[in-house]
Predict the structure.
Amino acid sequence: MAFHECGGNASGEIPISLPKWVLEIGKDNQDIFFTDREGRRNTECLSWGIDKERVLKGRTGIEVCFDFMRSFRMEFNDLFEEGFITAVEIGLGASGELKYPSHPERIGWRYPGIGEFQCYDKYMQQNLRRAAKLRGHSFWARGPDNAGHYNSRPHETGFFCDRGDYDGYYGRFFLHWYAQTLIDHADQVLSLANLAFEGTQVIIKIPAVYWWYKTSSHAAELTAGFYNPTNQDGYSPIFDMLKKHSAAMKFVCYGPQHSAQESDEALADLEGLSWQVMNSAWDRSLAVAAHGTLPCHDRETFIRIIENAKPRNDPDRRHLSFFTYQQLTSVFMEREMCFSELDNFIKCMHGRGSCQ
């Protein structure tokens, strides 16, 4: 269920936009889209600020999602009844992943920029003002003014640097509100998804925002909506919510697409983040899957995926429910020898083959 623009950015795919009737509304009311501090609108998906606002021809953002899911379930009822459709993946944000669109390449973001907060449309700002008033500090109803820009580094900002404002009273309030808005959006959509697809497994995607993971603030995760600095566990509240809805978690692993030098400079740690996210989900007895977004060409990469999918020394024998291999066609086009490696990879995933 794609409630977002598909393709575009650097994917090389032809973009499929939001429905035209939604974009028409957006011409007159641009605040239905996520907005950064400079007022730039992102039309990839709708702002979560309109989840309860009747701005879509008399319907709220959540109601539009539910109507679409219910219509799909009714239209393809026979496929559900006969067991051809056994699971439904629910898009919850940009790229179908549960995240704010905080790293948009079309606006100029490039790895390893920290990204920017996406809370400046009028509806998100109204929500922030309500939260600040409830907290008793109305002057906190603002986004941070020292959080840098899309391509800033954490140490270049007053908000994300070591001992920065992210860990002050205002910073903790703002980041909790920002992350809770993400959780509340997912909670509402999944409640209705379970109504529409009763008896069918629901799956949601969590992105691997792994750059700057070795810093104190985890700035790139914070702008994406994951309140996960070194002194805070940002994924447990999300997975508690997923457990309530019996949802499965698919971890989107972007893979080693950057050089070792680039990863070192970005203080990146994909393995560390993967360990935290997957174990946090497993600890809550969630079904866990993974999604590789880049082609894997060598045996070493295949082995690394297998080790993450089926940890050798895990006393609880936990493992992935399934693994999605993206861009498979390009693998065969680029290297003839890849087929034998892929064949062995699949066998290892099923407990056969040489996995050394």
User: Anything to note?
Assistant: The beta strands are 33-35, 41-46, 87-89, 201-207, 248-253, 288-292, 323-325. The first strand starts at residue 33 and ends at 35.
